[in-house]
Amino acid sequence: MFKTRFAIFLMMALSLLLLRTAAAQDAGQYLILSAQYGSEQRHVDVTNRLKELARADRQFRLDFRTFNVDPDEGHAKSLRIFARDPNGRERMFEYRDGSVIDGAQFRGWGSGQWGGDNDRWSGNWNGGDNDGDSGQFLILSAQYGSERRHVDVTNRLKELARADRQFRLDFRTFNVDPDEGHAKSLRIFARDPNGRERMFEYRDGSVIDGAQFRGWGSGQWGGDNDRWSGNWNGGYGGGNEAQPEMTAAIQHLREAQRNLESASHDKGGHRVKALQYIQQAIAEVEAGIQYDNRH
Hints:
Elements: H1 2-25, E1 31-38, E2 43-45, H2 47-56, E3 59-61, E4 78-84, E5 90-96, E6 100-102, E7 138-145, E8 150-152, H3 154-163, E9 166-168, E10 185-191, E11 197-203, E12 207-209, H4 244-262, H5 270-294
Antiparallel strand pairs: 1-2, 1-4, 3-6, 4-5, 7-8, 7-10, 9-12, 10-11
Helix pairs in contact: 4-5
């Protein structure tokens, strides 16, 4: 009887020891937000694959076969783990091909309890929240063209921002020339810290630097709750109040414009006419906003 009880006690003690050991191995101070593999020019998200590797072993050696992908063939690559420290600051840990990855410093490593929807990486390949993503202006919308003919390029600008903080502008940047033969510019409409709308203009040939825009590299802007006034010249003008119905009308018209532009072209010319009518409608709504602002 005594031997039986002793054996049970020994098994319980051993189980407790194993649990404490596992907890100790997962008690690192950094919480992983994202894992990216490749080079600055070309890299892919490997967060889920890293979770699988972490559950299998705390240590492993890195090369392109580790993640079954080679995002930038012929060039040096590395694994970059982006994590949050105990003070809430983002940190980047880099492991070049051939390195041994040890997850001891990461919290929840073996359990894979990290990299969820609430653990957001800034999107900055070089790490840190303050490197190019801490500007004071929040982008609402990006429009490219001239006052009479311009198109919404917000989503394309997000793609460019994620790839690089700086780039040179011309009509090829957005794969569209909305007003052929005329001078064009990119206008970025943003909200300042006081909630006022500001407009930033970049003419063709300019170098776009996103340092002054908040969340530039992560693309966390230009969403449904970040509404542009619809005024090509920026702001609501003269302290006038916003015009939500007119603004909503422009947003819907631009959405219809994007859908028509993405549609196949075999529509007997009706798609082109619809685009022309939408552009006219946008111009009329903008004129209405400007008229209201002046009177």
